[in-house]
Structures are given as C-alpha cells and as structure tokens.
# Entry
Amino acid sequence: SNRLELFRRLPSDLRRYRHYIYNLNRYYGSVLAFVQQERLHWKDAVPSSDPPYRNPEDYRILYSDWPYGVERDVQHLVVWTKYLLEEDEETGDLTTQARACIEAFVKRTFCGEDGVPRDQLVWFRNWKSLKSVHAL
# Structure
C-alpha cells in the first residue's frame, strides 16, 4: 500500500534510536557523515556513470541498525545508493521505470536459485519525509 508512515519502532527502541542519533550528530557532525564513513566506507557519494544497481561501488546492502517493530524472524536490510531513484514530480513516488529497475535488482540479488522465494520478500523505498539520511 506504500504507507510507510505506518511502520513504527517500539517506544523503547525509538527512545534509544533518538539518543543514538543525538550522539552521532555530536560525535560525527551528522548522521550522514557516520553512515558514509563508518557503515558504508565510502570516501564520497558520487555515483559512477553506470546504470542503477549495475556497479557494486554505487550501492551497499546492510542490515538495518534500527529495524522497525516487525516480527522477530523478519530481516530488515537497507540498500544504500549513491544515486537518486527516479521519482514522479507530482507525487514523489517512484516512476514505473524505477520500480522495474528495483524489482529486477531484488530478484537478481535476493531471489536467485538459493535465495528467498519472491513471495516472501517485500521491498520499499523510504519517502523523503521519512529518511534519516537524505543525501543517500
């Protein structure tokens, strides 16, 4: 339904998350600096000229440091990208072409021969208003 604002963290997790973000800002100057330097190990966030999801230097797949309050057996991964995904200017939602590109990447990366069955995997892109790191 694309209603990501309905995802929530447990209140105790949310308090720890906000404290964590506060300390990251104090120590690194921003959450972006921490994520880029410590988690992604990117010197810069300049993408290559390759199409999205074709150059492994342009994206990283990490477990979420702060997953939403979902069932314990659900894994929450984050695909960080150096490039912006194409959006509809009026709605802010992904274009059909961007969705198709992401779907192909998801199938290729996570649903191969020994991967997750496609019907057991859900992907979403955070809306700009919900992102904690806007530049990536």
Remarks:
- The chain has a mean pLDDT of 88.
- The longest helix spans residues 11-28.
- The beta strands are 59-63, 77-81.
- The longest strand covers residues 59-63.
